[in-house]
User: Fold this.
Amino acid sequence: MRNILLSAATVLLAGTTLVGSANSAELPKGAAHNIVLVHGAFVDQTSWQPVADILTKKGYRVTLVENPLTSLAADVDATKQALAKQDGKTVLVGHSWGGVVITQAGNDPKVSALVYVSAFAPDVGESLASLSKAGPPTEGGNAIHPDAKGNLYIDPKVFPSAVAADLPPEIAEHLANSQSPLSLAAFEAPVSIAAWRDKLTFDVITTKDKVIAPEAQKLFATRMKAQTTDVAGSHASLVVHAKEVAEVIEKAALAK
Assistant:
């Protein structure tokens, strides 16, 4: 999956001018220099690579969390381990299922801001399962099914159109056939902390999303009192619209 996502990044960012690393020591005083990126279900940490490349070239210290996707506790632990290695203020970012993870893990004192990208944002006692039932049904949500071991996948035939309609078809199909499963235990686990209640929060809402309905994303953002940015893209906007997503993360890093 790593190679195919990096290939996608190369194709989609071709022609984009990125800020070089010459200003890496000149980030504004008081800015959060650390960015921790938490990926969603069905993909791995390389889904964040296009965004990470942009932020790294601007001088930020970027960490990609590798979620095991075996349980909420395991993913939260992986995120907390990443946070423990940060030196100073940190922006914690979650995509999709990663929004659940940062909601639980984001009460760390180093975290200066949270950023949700096409993400679920539960309150205390809510789980991915309960949020999925509460929101408008979507093509992607309806295509999530368990295998014989109870691990959840998106139907590979539906994945390209539901998750990554704006990626090149061959890349979307490859991702569909090389998914990283989410355990049923993770899907059903409620959060016991809602870090967004005490943190400055930003939300990138993807208006063409067929996994998490845009209406649901807007409801999450309103409840969190998040600063919102709409992006006209699919659930894969962290790859397709990496520049816009990176801009929101940098806004969070510079916020006071």
